[in-house]
Amino acid sequence: MNDPLILDYFIATIIVEVAIVLVFFIFYRRKLKELVEKIRELTAKNENLKKNEFELYEKIKSTKSAFEDVEVRFEKISKIIQGFSQITQKSYSEFFDDLLDLALSVVPEAKSGSISVIDGKKWKFMAIHGNGKDAEKLKLLDLKSEWMVTIPKVTVVEDISKANEKNVPKVYSNMIEEAVGGHIYRSIAIPLKLGNDFIGNCFLDALNDIKFSESSKIAMENFAVLASTFLTLKKLEILPQLSINNTLREIVNFYEMKDPATRSHSENVAYFAVKIGEKMNLSPKQIGDLYWAAIFHDIGLISIPDEIARKSSMTEAEFQIMKIHTLIGEKIIDPYDHLKEAAIVARSHHECFDGSGYPDGIKGFDIPLLSRIVSICDLFDTLRKNSKLGMSVSDVINEIKEKSGTQFDPEIVKVATQIFETVKK
Q: In angstroms, how far apart are the furthest CA atoms of the chain?
């Protein structure tokens, strides 16, 4: 009788133990599953964190690269401007040699170059720089004007010898490469003009298989504008009278002509600024300083990449780069004693009356008077010409009035809006 009881007890015990094991198994399985899910979640977060770190690193690298690009552009453009101011008194033949030296000095990829012009029915080399032999003989060659490659704008030409095969006899192409000192892999071709008439080319040659940087191309676009202006004035024998003001003005005009939205912007700002200055009874000296300050207020934009400068909506990193144009503008103008006031305005025309502007965050009457005037004129012309905004002159005036005391000097707003109200749509 005891045996069945013992057996039942034994079976019951086993069942309980199995049940306990099953409960623990189910419990730990569930916990294990939760742990696996947690590990997967943490792994995913870790991967996402790595991805974010990589993206952040790439953004930092991109921003650093953009800042460095701005700095390189500024250095090259400054060198071009200073270079032109130093070669104004040269004779016609010396002028071309110095012109070529200047171009080569700002394009490190180029190790040789030449300037040639059309003279009647002839194509003449005016300057050749390189490490080859018999460079001077090129100036004596009997070349036909129709052989010259006509370049409408600054262009990178791959393998100029091959590009010239249809026009230039092979013997002359070989002589050019011998003169410059090696095979020309590619060249930056810069058109030279007298007024609107094409008269020749400046070629800067890479003797190694190296690409020209974007900053070099942009620098040569500025160089082309100034070179053609100087050549025109040199031909007319009025170059000695050319002031640095007009040199810098050509740079401003070149930048503004790229975009209909900025075309004639500096001239418009100068016109309104002078009108305001006259109504405020500024002295003739102040009016003169105000005019040139308005003309050059945005000259620093020539160093800002177009893909940033022309954006209507910028990232924070892009805006930080954009703000540098005020400092660059000051650096471009500051070396010239008669433009000291203009340099100050280039730096401070984005300061706000309440101190929320840049680059220095100054406020109120600590902001120079001329900067306070130019600042209002700058916004007025920008908004009224922005077709995307579709603002009437009245809308723009109301916008300026709303910013009185925050962005703008209230007293100047009163005078400026009187001037602006006379403007037709």
A: 137
Radius of gyration, alpha carbons of the chain: 34
Report CA-CA distances (Å) from 107 to 75, 162, 250, 318: 12, 23, 21, 26
pTM of the shown model: 0.59
End-to-end CA distance of the chain: 117
Q: What angle do CA 210, 76, 79 make, to 5 degrees?
A: 130
Contact call for residues 308 and 321 (beta carbons, < 8 A): yes
- CA distance linking residue 137 with residue 282, whole number of Å: 60
Q: How far apart are CA 350 and CA 407, in angstroms?
A: 9
Q: The tokens of 10 are what?
A: 């034994």
What whole-number distance in Å separates Cα of residue 205 and Cα of residue 104?
9
Take residue 22 and report the two structure tokens written for it.
Answer: 């099953």
Under 8 Å between Cβ of 201 and 120: no
Q: Under DSSP, is residue 308 helix (H, G, I), strand (E, B) or coil?
A: helix
Nearest to 236 by CA among 117, 92, 366: 92
Residues 102-123 as b/e (b if ≥16 CB within 10 A, e otherwise) read bbbebbebbbbbbbbbbeeeeb
pLDDT tens, 297-355? 998 887 787 777 777 788 888 888 888 889 888 988 887 888 899 999 999 999 999 99
Strand partners, 192: 200
Dihedral of alpha carbons 265, 70, 83, 341, sign: positive
Looking at residue 147, its amino acid is W
Q: Among all chains, which residue has been given the structure tokens 């003797």? A: 207
